[in-house]
Amino acid sequence: MIVHARLPDLMPPGSDNPIASYLADPDEVGRVLLLYSGGLDTSVMLRWIQEKYDAEIVTLTVHLGQPGEDFDVVVGKARDLGATDAILVDAREEFAHDYVLRAIKANAVYGDAYPLFTALGRPLIAKLAVEHARRTGCDTVAHGCTGKGNDQVRIEATVAALDPELKILAPVREWSMSRDEEIAYAREHGIPVKGGTEAPPYSIDDNVWGRSSEGGEIEDLDAAPRDEVFQLVTRPEEAPDEPQLVRVGFERGCPVALDGERLELVELLERAADLGRRHGVGIVDHVEDRIVGLKIRDVYEVPAAAILLTAHRDLEALVSTIHQNNFKRTLEDKWAYLCYAGLWHDPLRADLDAYMDSANEVVTGEVTLKLYKGSVTPVARRSRYALYDRSLASFGESGAQFSQAASPGFIELFTLQTRMARRVRSGAEDTESEER
Ligand code: ARG
After folding, report:
1. CA 276, CA 157: separation in Å to the nearest integer?
2. What is this structure's pTM?
3. What is the number of alpha carbons within 13 Å of residue 357 lying toward its C-beta?
């Protein structure tokens, strides 16, 4: 039996107002732009919305470099299921330049583990949804996110920020269909179910910056992920026995070359991912603090991010002062949190990006990394902006440029308060014990 959502569920009990101002009023849904992946949820949704709301559907599918996806098949399926229009946008360039590059400049990693590939993709997908909804006369944007995840926050935050007129429909939060019920619904409505009726073992999301697996056995925190989880990156124990060196060139914080060959950013990201995959690089097992309060375990495969963030961090540290290096970390954490939390359009993100751009003005040069059975290690670097002088750093004589004789004077002044605090406080303790 299929339990359809009761439409009044969109209203809190005893109220005439929807729970959020931007939720679609069931009576006013006319034409819906559905974010369509081609999977079971959004395919069932395509029919369900037509049936339930008597609405026309335009689908939007966004290419962000998902490895191995056949987008022609996805678009064809949308048409077969009754979409009046099935739009495919290849957004790889925009994703690379306006989202991934910002993340590189910000060394963006959430919870010391997650390079934010999904979190970076969602605001772009939602922005495209707004643009195409307007263009095709849609009043509502529908998506397939659940009520437990971060993605609903990211998509709805972006749509509501960019176009307060547009309404949101999130059927998975309302329809309370189990997977078996969805399959039964698909059967009844002639929706092809890819890969049979076996529940897929994991929930996957991916793009050029990484891949995540959640659910199934991964929910058992106490067990290591099974080998089958790793569909992108070679398991380190099976990676080549020979290490490989790769030289990454940067200009103003942007990766521009691999081993001296200049590449467009999208291609560079793809090539870095291929290199990393081969060497088992970028496997992350993370129990994550979601925005909606849950702790959830994710297994990530992030070969491109592992390579490029490691190289970028190394070069940036070389050309920045100690003060810049210490300060930037706190901003990076803030940037990563805003992105993770779906607040891409908070003005603070743009403020932080202005700082990131400024700090990256001098991040030009090359870093050589060694890739070997799951590890990425910087082994050499050079930059014309390096704040490094070999004659100063050397244990040998530096001549008049660095006076070692001046060091004790520096130490005396630099440690003044530390020494004084220790004296004052131990003196006070002695007096206290005398008073007792
Ligand atoms: N935990 C990651 C995040 O919140 C990955 C989410 C993957 N999304 C998905 N729909 N499977 O960004």
Report:
1. 33
2. 0.94
3. 8
